[in-house]
Design goal:
It is a single chain. This protein is of the alpha/beta class and 257 residues long. The chain folds into two domains: 183 residues, Rossmann fold, CATH 3.40.50.150; 65 residues, rRNA adenine dimethylase, C-terminal domain (Helicase, Ruva Protein, domain 3). It is built from ten helices and nine strands. The strands form two sheets. The protein has a seven-stranded mixed sheet. α7 crosses α10. The longest helix is centred in the last third of the chain and has 15 residues. The protein starts with 10 loop residues before the first strand and ends with a helix. 36% of the residues are buried.
Length: 257
Amino acid sequence: MKAKKSFGQHFLNSPHIAEKIVDSLSFSEEMGNVLEVGPGKGVLTRFLLERNCHFKAVEADRDMVDYLQATFPQLSDAIIAEDFLRLPLDRVFEGQSFALIGNFPYNISSQIVFRMLKYRDLVPEMVGMFQKEMAERIIAPHGSKTYGVISVLTQAFYRGKYLFTVQPGSFTPPPRVLSGVIRLERIDRPELEGYEKTFSRVVKQAFSQRRKMLRNTMKIFLKDDPVLKDSYFQQRPEDLSVEDYIVLSRQLHDKLV
């Protein structure tokens, strides 16, 4: 976990919470490989090393890399001194699947999720600690005020569960907000095969003006197409479920390619 406040990260100082986070991973046979993002001083790492897994960690802060190598000399070859957001994840475990875990910096946590989605074929499971507001947003149900682009795009490919809340006192320095831990488990979406790009475009456009009905926001794609009179377009973006967006994307695919 990066110590630099400018990166929005804080040290987790509670072994109890760290162990609870690690215990939230399934560690099934498929989860033999585990990648930790931003291990910092290794509070999660200590518990991960007690599990029967093939462990690696990616850490961008050079000072933290040096600390980890000195504290866990057995991990000298397992620490990747790079930026997770630029790391080609398909080379971490030589193309093999892996579970993702970490106490994610608040201000790049959404980017971490989108990076995971890009490589979702390699990531069957993720357990992460986020700012509580972001954690709730990722798994928010349709109809809620926090339901948005990251909710739809994530839930299209992962089943999410809110696990527990972490108080500020569990960090050094303590943040001014609560943190939340969630687990995401990948699901199959064969109905989206060949439609992923259209799906992403439709969802992002729908929420670009979330207070307007879809008939207004989708005109950029459809102009005065009669399809805008369909029932889907008489709703606001938060009213549509993930499944609704999948159906809509398939219907609009030929008009958008």
